């Protein structure tokens, strides 16, 4: 007989993550065995699909953070992951662009303008810019992966290279991306995003080479 789990009201997403682990343990599921569809799991735990997805998203973000802290994955690898994800996302966003998306991107640029690249205000505006693009691409899986990397990468990236970032260069790069998306030019949007992320990648590489061995 199936036991129905109910997520606690205080923090539904964390409770769902706990219930999923307990669900797996109770059924002694083996690799390759069927877990159930998203709809079935949502019904099992008595929550909506968005709440379940949010709980899973948080778990993955926390896992990536632990990998970063324990040096199982490097900051450069996370930047490279963003290149693999966000370059095609920019192209998709340009294909599906609306005037509202273009306005949101411009607003995010405006929020960052005038703030130091190492500041919280700049980081939040920068993350908003990239999240708008991910949402505009209309691919929920890619949007989720982008969210996971941004949740972990942005704070660590700013902590590491914030003082070396040229804020005006970042904003110019964002404007080029926004322009290509607004004009619905997928190839141009991809090129602009690649230049932007390559800039960040080069900053990380240069700082890593300056770090004496044993201090990483």
What does this structure look like?
The chain is mainly alpha-helical and 216 residues long. It has two domains: 1-72, Orthogonal Bundle (Arc Repressor Mutant, subunit A), CATH 1.10.10; 74-210, Up-down Bundle (Four Helix Bundle (Hemerythrin (Met), subunit A)), CATH 1.20.120. Helices cover 74% and strands 0% of the residues. The protein has helices at 12-27, 38-45, 49-69, 75-95, 99-112, 120-136, 140-161, 167-182, 186-210. Helix 8 (167-182) runs antiparallel to helix 9 (186-210). The model is unreliable at 1-10 and 212-216 (pLDDT under 50).
In short:
The protein has 216 residues and is an all-alpha fold. 74% of the residues lie in helices and 0% in strands.
């Amino acid at each position: 007989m199936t036991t129905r789990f109910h997520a606690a009201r205080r923090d539904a997403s964390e409770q769902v993550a706990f219930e999923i682990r307990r669900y797996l343990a109770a059924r002694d599921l083996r690799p390759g065995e069927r877990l159930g569809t998203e709809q079935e799991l949502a019904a099992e735990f008595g929550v909506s699909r968005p709440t379940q997805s949010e709980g899973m998203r948080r778990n993955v973000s926390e896992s990536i953070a632990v990998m970063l802290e324990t040096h199982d994955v490097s900051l450069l690898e996370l930047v490279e992951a963003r290149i693999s994800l966000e370059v095609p996302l920019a192209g998709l966003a340009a294909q599906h662009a609306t005037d509202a998306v273009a306005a949101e991107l411009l607003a995010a640029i405006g929020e960052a303008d005038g703030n130091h690249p190492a500041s919280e205000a700049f980081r939040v505006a920068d993350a908003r810019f990239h999240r708008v693009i991910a949402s505009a691409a209309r691919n929920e899986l890619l949007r989720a992966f982008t969210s996971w990397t941004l949740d972990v990468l942005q704070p660590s990236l700013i902590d590491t290279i914030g003082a070396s970032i040229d804020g005006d260069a970042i904003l110019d790069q964002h404007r080029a991306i926004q322009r290509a998306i607004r004009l619905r030019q997928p190839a141009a949007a991809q090129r602009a995003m690649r230049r932007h992320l390559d800039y960040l990648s080069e900053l990380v590489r240069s700082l890593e080479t300056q770090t004496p061995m044993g201090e990483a």
